[in-house]
Amino acid sequence: MLDALGMEMSAYSGNLYDIDLNTDAYIDECSFFGCDEIMIGTMPTDFPEDADGYMMAINLMNKVGQKIAKGGVYLSYHNHAQEFRRFKNGKTGMDLLYENLEPNVVHFMLDTHWVQSGGGDVIQWIEKCKDRMQYIHVKDYRIRPANYFTGIGHVDKQFAQIGEGNLPWPLIINTCLRQGIKSFIVEQDFPYDEDPFDCAATSYHNLIRYGLK
Amino acid sequence: MKIALSPMPLAPYMPKPAYGEYINTYKHDIHTMLHNIKKCGFDGLEMGTPEGFSTMEYKAFMDEAGLKVVSGKGLRYPEILGNDFKKHMDDCICLGAKNVMVSNVPPVVLGNQDELNKFIKNLNRVGKIFMEEAGIHVSFHNHAIDFAKINGISMLEQIFENTDERYVFFEPDTHWLQAGGAHVITWLKKLKGRMYMVHFKDYGIDCLTYTF
């Protein structure tokens, strides 16, 4: 069906334990689709939510990454805001991932909205992931003029079409292109009250308007 | 003068104004607070004359503690719309403060382009008076909500584009730039020449259970 539509599959997402158990099946499936990366979408929930838990998960990802690398497939880690939590040892989850994942087998697949939401500098993180990231999730970060009286400390943020929020798109796109990102994956978790295809089309056109292609 | 403190985090501990027989205790508490701030290492404070004090009395307390007032009492609606801000100006002049903050857009401006235009017009008007009459910077201080867009352009961007660079300045807040979805470094560079002060606070994540 993808072929008929003239589309390609850029990356695949999977469960770490399942990939560990059925590595060969995942390699076959990736090679069938012509895709070279499997994304791990979050921390496995059965590890403790502390620095030790992160290290356990990182070791597992490195192990599975090495296994699947034999079939020419990379793993990649996809962040949300929670990876920016700082642990008692002074490091954030992202620091631990960055310092301990093996760059040649486990890549990053950053998400622009969630890096911002976690307090990270989107541009700096893209630059840090040079040679360790082939694909990136792009979604914007929008502030809704909420009921003011909920307090000035209240942040009514939303996922948003590219260009409808406040992320620095020309800079993001330039930085990604400079370091050879293969695909930009548009993601908008909720369309709110808009048509999801309109949202997707807006994101697509704005990516091009801001310098892609 | 480099590092000052905004008394916001002290708000719950700030001595409550008291009068009559309690006035001296209240003033003593303010005195202690100022000395504690100095002991932390700060050079100044972003706080106009507190309630219950005369300007000169507050200045004497600050001088004695070795602190400077870097920024006076914030301007709000409705005083920005008229001329009621003169007392703030006099307070700043007596205290030697060279800055006065306008903290976030007034509620009526949210989502309303006409009200935003009116707000911007008055910022220019009030900024001109403060700068020309007293050399004081009127600085807009953002929160996340100022990044909400009207007609496709965020309110902060519109304020930046449409205020007079000679009269209206910015006192951005690093945490709120981030929380608003903006690129902190880009904004700090963009505000070169229009930023007399900056609010520094970090942005931490504390989610013990996660859904993604």
Oligomeric state, counting identical vs distinct chains: heterodimer
Mean pLDDT of chain B: 92
The pLDDT mean of chain A sits at 91
- Whole-number radius of gyration of chain A? 18 Å
Report what the structure shows.
The complex is a heterodimer of chains A (213) and B (212). By secondary structure, chain A is of the alpha/beta class. Helices cover 40% and strands 15% of the residues of chain A. In chain A, helix 4 (51-69) packs parallel to helix 5 (93-100) and helix 7 (122-128) runs parallel beside helix 8. The longest helix of chain A is centred in the first third of the chain and has 19 residues, at 51-69. Chain A is globular, with a radius of gyration of 18 Å. Chain A starts with a helix and ends with a helix. By secondary structure, chain B is of the alpha/beta class. Chain B has helices at 23-39, 55-65, 86-95, 113-134, 155-162, 174-179, 184-190, and strands at residues 4-5, 44-45, 68-69, 99-103, 137-141, 149-150, 153-154, 168-170.
Keywords:
heterodimer; A: 213 residues; alpha/beta; 4-stranded parallel beta sheet; 9 helices; 8 strands; 15% strand; B: 212 residues; 3-stranded parallel beta sheet; 7 helices; 38% helix; 11% strand; globular
Structural topology:
The complex is a heterodimer of chains A (213) and B (212).
Chain A: H1 2-5, E1 12-13, H2 16-21, H3 23-33, E2 37-40, H4 51-69, E3 74-78, H5 93-100, E4 106-109, H6 112-117, H7 122-128, E5 135-138, E6 140-143, E7 157-160, H8 169-178, E8 183-186, H9 196-209
Parallel strand pairs in A: 1-2, 2-3, 3-4, 5-8
Antiparallel strand pairs in A: 6-7
Helix pairs in contact in A: 4-5, 7-8
Chain B: E1 4-5, H1 23-39, E2 44-45, H2 55-65, E3 68-69, H3 86-95, E4 99-103, H4 113-134, E5 137-141, E6 149-150, E7 153-154, H5 155-162, E8 168-170, H6 174-179, H7 184-190
Parallel strand pairs in B: 1-2, 2-3, 4-5, 5-8
Antiparallel strand pairs in B: 6-7
